[in-house]
Write a structure and sequence with these properties.
The chain has six helices and 15 strands. It is α+β, with helices and mostly antiparallel strands. The chain has a seven-stranded mixed beta sheet. Strands 4-3-2-1-8-9 form a six-stranded mixed beta sheet, with no helix packed on it. The protein is globular, with a radius of gyration of 21 Å. Keywords: Membrane, Signal, Transmembrane, Transmembrane helix. It comes from Laccaria amethystina LaAM-08-1.
Length: about 375
């Protein structure tokens, strides 16, 4: 018995430590507001002693943090050619394992982030509606450090512990007023070589409903209905979608609730999402709107099973240094221009509903 005593004492100490940790922050991430750019703190998530640990990156992002090793967690979403996606900081990552640690990858220099490598984006539809902006598209996810074949997951400012996924991740947009406003409600699904990102206008009364975060297992088709097509890059105006989970059957408005994960895979849903009407669609050549990405290359170790830090990847004019301590004096004003599963949930190793099926059902017109 005496030989087991040290182990028992250690286990009790660990249990006591974990039990003493809190789960929820004093203020939920979705309630934290910061004026852009001077009101943004170094780290948004400042609570200590919480179960998931500390925020991975930082939120003051400028020229001193801009590189392919940036840990910036302040995202920008403006237009078809100026947006950021949440993606891993390390090559060959599984989204479901690191949703809380995602960093911003953007399409334009000037945001203090990593840049999405040239050729990664293979089709986009940007939609501006009365209450939100939305971009849906196809990408080679290995070029943004997501493991090949990963079905992915959902990022949003809530999460089970209200710290957000990623923890401390904040979003800004100049789409509505020309000046940067903080986006309090948003969701971003990444996986299966596709993505959707919706940012809801915080000034509207239904931002939380259009950017719902409780349907993480049924992916983009149900959360961001669209007509995106491979190899097409277009910007459109459109009507609002139905609130996620709300549908009409035989003239009766009904509500769908995602079943608990403990009940097993989602094999069917009672409705097909309605794609909102769109108008004034304009198409563009990707080589033109993403010219700044042409010299940005994917990490060569992204899919060789490497688990350590990635090798240095640079783009024209960007530092190859891993910037982990941003300077508040760097240039931080971007240029103005015109839990969490996605759909096939390989997060726990159990497929639920193929994101590819959902996307193909949407894209076939």
């Amino acid at each position: 018995m005496s030989s087991y005593l040290p182990h028992i004492v250690a286990l009790v100490a660990i249990f006591t430590f974990v039990s003493a940790q809190s789960t929820f922050p004093a203020t939920p991430l979705a309630s934290k507001t910061f004026a852009y750019p001077t009101g943004i703190p170094y780290k948004v998530d400042t609570d200590i002693g919480l179960v998931r640990g500390t925020q991975k990156g930082y939120n003051i992002c400028n020229s001193t943090t801009e590189s392919q090793h940036s840990l910036c967690q302040t995202s920008i979403f403006n237009t078809l050619d100026d947006f950021c996606l949440w993606a891993p900081a390390e090559p060959n990552s599984v989204v479901g394992n690191i949703e809380g640690e995602m960093v911003a990858w953007c399409t334009k220099p000037g945001h203090g982030t990593r840049l999405i490598p040239g050729g990664a984006l293979t089709g986009l539809q940007y939609m501006r509606t009365p209450d939100y902006i939305q971009i849906v598209g196809f990408l080679d996810q290995t070029k943004v450090d997501i493991q090949v074949g990963d079905y992915g997951g959902e990022m949003d400012p809530h999460g089970a512990d209200l710290r957000g996924n990623p923890m401390g991740g904040i979003v800004y947009s100049n789409a509505w007023t020309g000046s940067y406003l903080q986006v309090m409600e948003w969701h971003n699904f990444m996986g299966s070589d596709a993505f959707c990102f919706k940012a809801c206008d915080s000034r509207g009364p239904n931002a939380a409903r259009f950017c719902e975060h409780i349907f993480d297992r049924i992916g983009c088709a149900y959360n961001a209905p669209n007509n995106a097509k491979p190899d097409v890059f277009e910007s459109c105006e459109g009507d609002n979608q139905d609130f996620p989970g709300i549908y009409t059957e035989n003239g009766q408005v009904k509500t769908y609730m995602q079943p608990a994960e403990s009940l097993g895979p989602i094999s069917t849903t009672p409705y097909q999402p309605k794609v909102p009407a769109s108008s004034n669609c304009k198409t563009f050549e990707s080589s033109s709107i993403f010219a700044a990405l042409a010299t940005v290359s994917a990490d060569p170790k992204a899919n060789d099973g490497a688990t350590g830090s990635s090798t240095t990847v640079t783009s024209s004019g960007l530092s190859s240094k891993d910037s982990t301590t941003p300077s508040a004096t760097g240039s931080s004003a971007p240029a103005k221009t015109s839990s969490s599963h996605a759909s096939t949930l390989a997060i726990t190793g159990v497929p639920v509903l193929s994101l590819g099926v959902l996307f193909s059902a949407l894209f076939l017109s």
